[in-house]
Design brief:
heterodimer; A: alpha/beta; 9-stranded mixed beta sheet; 9 helices; 9 strands; globular; B: mainly alpha; 14 helices; 0% strand
């Protein structure tokens, strides 16, 4: 019993130790799912150059993040994958949104592309299990546009929560094919295989970012992401220039 | 003097208990008041009439009833074995059977995914040999719901079996009744309140299941989008609709709980009925 008590107290003390250092301010960034990897890198580079700020990034679908912001979530910066979801929070932002990057769509399959998918037309095959997202999620909206333009009619087997969920369903072999962003395929490496969608059939996704308050930290972060350093990092991860 | 005071005290509950109980009631009631306050009643009819809402409702009822049925068919025998048969790893089996009750549902969904998914440990044989696929199907929803709901039934029924005095059954058998006959006519009727309580708990859990469903079965209106999933999706873009869906679920659940309240609470005297 004694030992359990000592262990328990130690754990509580350790938990308490994770608390706030009064010299460091927290900066909360809401970033859409497709920005997960690149913002993790931007976060560490920014923190290295700004030691008085601790950046905390929360990733989810832009639609989910917009909802949270509308409900009053205490975020400082919001980066979305489409303009529609940024518009939803227009009452909450300080200043105007800046488009800081662009992206394109790509078909994603299991490693090695076992079903031999070569184009959007192949997706119409009813034996292929295709997953996407609801149209209010950026990737879902873009996918719908691309498929409509190509005149391809597809029946999805599931509407996933965000682009990473789509990617994971395909990567684990549960679904045969999906449409995600070029940057997601790049980030997933050997876990998936990408099939290019030609530019004429593709859409350009605009990524807006906005401050949700006038804090200095938010300003510095947005400035960093839009700086040449930030742009270079975004380019490294496959994002296009704004 | 002292005796009179003592009598007065036993008639009135202590204030402290009443206050704490009142806080508990408030804790349960206020969230529902919050929903009622924000629900757009004028749009409610339109929301309910929507095709996807009726699909979600039908799907929820179908899958939760099926899940409960499966839970009864395999759960009651399991409860019997756990209560009556003394075997080596009984505690381990019991822990396994009730593990999904304490696990976060998403974890349950992930576990189902990697075991019964198309490339899962067992799922790959189901798929390669028999062409059976569980994810993205209504059957997958039933599996996910059964996984999380069955422990409730097993625990409740096992407890009832344990409390039931075996001597009644033995007496019946000594008088010539067959094993199954004695079980059906003596034991089952006596533990019926417990079975119904377990059944209601399991059904309610299955109806409200979200995490395992969305992870394992997916989200498609008409096939796998149950009421909880539809509510979650609606929350993103149309909070009003989400509120209406919530009200529908609350009304149904409330109705079932009220309707079965006597069986639910159980009547202590019923236990000894034969």
């Amino acid at each position: 019993m004694r030992v359990a008590g000592i262990v328990g107290l130690t754990l509580v003390a350790l938990a308490g130790c994770g608390g706030t250092d009064s010299d460091v301010d927290t900066l909360t960034v809401f970033a859409t799912s497709s920005l997960t990897e690149v913002f993790a890198r931007l976060e560490s580079e920014f923190e290295a150059a700004n030691t008085d700020l601790d950046v905390v990034v929360s990733n989810a679908a832009s639609s989910e993040l917009a909802r949270q912001i509308i409900e009053g979530a205490p975020a400082d910066v919001f980066a979305a994958a489409d303009l529609m979801n940024m518009d939803r929070v227009s009452d909450q932002i300080d200043g105007s949104p800046i488009v800081f990057a662009t992206n394109r769509l790509q078909i994603v399959t299991e490693p090695g592309n076992p079903r031999g998918v070569t184009s959007l037309d192949d997706l119409a095959d009813p034996s292929l299990l295709f997953v996407t997202s609801d149209r209010r999620v950026p990737i879902g909206g873009y996918t719908e546009t691309v498929l409509q333009r190509a005149g391809v009619s597809v029946r999805p087997v599931s509407y996933e929560e965000n682009v990473k969920a789509i990617l994971n369903k395909v990567a684990t072999g549960e679904a045969d094919v999906g449409i995600v962003f070029v940057t997601d395929v790049l980030a997933a490496g050997s876990r998936v295989t990408g099939v290019v969608i030609p530019d004429e059939a593709n859409v350009v996704a605009q990524y807006p970012m906005a401050r949700l308050n006038s804090s200095d930290g938010a300003r510095r972060f947005v400035d960093f992401v839009t700086s040449s350093t930030g742009r270079a990092i975004l380019g490294e991860f496959g994002f296009g220039a704004p | 003097m002292i005796r009179m005071r003592r009598n007065r005290r036993t008639h009135r509950p202590p204030i402290a208990i009443l206050v704490l109980a009142a806080i508990a009631v408030a804790f349960f009631t206020l969230p529902f008041l919050g929903i009622l306050w924000r629900t757009p009643w004028s749009d409610a009819i339109d929301v309910i009439r929507d095709e996807s809402v009726r699909q979600a409702l039908w799907l929820s009822i179908l899958t939760s009833v099926l899940a409960t049925a499966v839970a009864i068919v395999i759960g009651v025998p399991l409860a019997w074995v756990l209560a009556r048969v003394d075997f080596r790893f009984r505690n381990v089996v019991r822990a396994l059977a009730t593990l999904s009750m304490v696990l976060p549902p998403v974890v349950g969904g992930v576990a189902l995914f990697f075991s019964f998914g198309r490339r899962g440990l067992f799922g790959q044989y189901l798929y390669d040999w028999f062409g059976i696929r569980l994810p993205f199907t209504t059957a997958g929803v039933v599996v996910a719901q059964t996984f999380v709901a069955m422990p409730f039934l097993v625990l409740t029924v096992e407890s009832a079996f344990r409390q039931f005095d075996m001597r009644y059954e033995d007496a019946a058998r000594s008088l010539g009744a067959g094993r199954w006959h004695a079980f059906r006519r003596i034991t089952l009727p006596t533990i019926r309140p417990a079975i119904i309580a377990g059944l209601v708990l399991a059904w309610a859990r299955a109806l409200g299941e979200f995490g395992a469903t969305i992870t394992f079965a997916g989200n498609l209106p008409g096939t796998t989008q149950t009421m909880p999933l539809a509510t979650y999706i609606a929350l993103e873009s149309d909070p009003g609709a989400a509120l209406v869906l919530s009200i529908v679920l609350i009304v149904i659940s409330f109705g079932v709980l009220i309707g079965l309240r006597d069986r639910w609470l159980g009547n202590p005297h019923e236990v000894t009925r034969s």
